[in-house]
Amino acid sequence: MVKGINKAFVYGVSVGGSNFTDRTKESHRLKMNFENGLNVVLISPRRMGKTSLVKHVQEIVDKSLIQTIYIDIFDCRSEYDFYNKFAEALLKQTANKMELAIENIKRFLVRLTPKVAFSPDLTSEYSFSLGITPKEYSPEEILALPELLAKHIGKHIVVCIDEFQQIGEWPDSIYVQKRMRGVWQHQQHVSYCLFGSRQHMMTNIFQNKRMPFYQFGEPNYLQPIPTADWIPFIQSKFAEKDLTISEEYVTKICEIVRNQSSYVQQLAWNVMINTQEEVTEKVIEQGVSDLLAQCTPLFIEQLNPLTTYQMNFLRAINNGQHDQWTSQEVMGKYNLGTKSNIAKMQTLLLEKDFIERREDGLYLSDPVLELWLKQH
Ligand SMILES: Nc1ncnc2c1ncn2[C@@H]1O[C@H](COP(=O)(O)OP(=O)(O)O)[C@@H](O)[C@H]1O
Ligand SMILES: [Mg+2]
Question: What percent of the chain has pLDDT over 70?
Fold first, then answer.
């Protein structure tokens, strides 16, 4: 066992405990939805705090009533990849001991011979792979598993599926979605919390009338954590290290990264590192320049595959252009190619999450990329 250290700021991975701030309203609503068996769809740009929020709610729900299951399907590439992960998570997380999980496999998945693996550090951690293929079980049989398990353990089950947008990338995706919804919507003792980033994909799955998951659950758009909540959080972290930061500078940190949760913590950490006693303008500037340097390799990698026209499009947005894309003047000024090319570019840049649509037009999704493009 490694002794835990108390990190001041954490970014890039989901956070809990003293690294989790605010979100009392969202936590409460989600908790109520879970405890009342409502399906939920949770959408936000990446690194805003979806995973952290769901994991937090898993901790605070009434565990005597419901059993939550967490599954991250980011690396699932096909339908059966998913069924394996789905069944493994269900069986493992509904049993508090390995023996129980194995018993349940024998009870509910008789046709399988699971392989069990223990983690190398000899903790009680284990994992198993079920190796489900269409030969052993049909999709419907696997999709029905949570209902059987709920009855077996005598609790309502809430299945939380992270990075759900990935499903849109699988072969025969729409067909698979139809099957899922077909089984899930009839379950009495199971509800679902489906969440993910890449707004464009998620909105297409849940808000498009022709798609199977249309109106499957209550849509929730996770908003940024307000500056008023970051102020006490960040100030107390500085105070723990005998450092001070004024409200004004916390506000500035939030503004620079448009309150995107992960960047707020990353920039706050950059600032803390360079602070002697009290945060100054110069320290903030240094923090921002460090942040840009930290992001540079990733941005270069992300921008590398883009064509000149696509880059011109991003630069146009960064220059304050948000709509009227097909006006002669705009097309000429930014050199965007033909009209049909512009339409294709928009779709691609939305799908790849470089840009997002707001009420008054298109904007860059990443506040730091925006700063970076201004400098390069
Ligand atoms: N409630 C929160 N309080 C403080 N920081 C948060 C919170 N939620 C998210 N963050 C910050 O955002 C980062 C990404 O969070 P995560 O939950 O992984 O986002 P998402 O799942 O939306 O991509 C975390 O590492 C942390 O820095
Ligand atoms: Mg996440």
Answer: 98
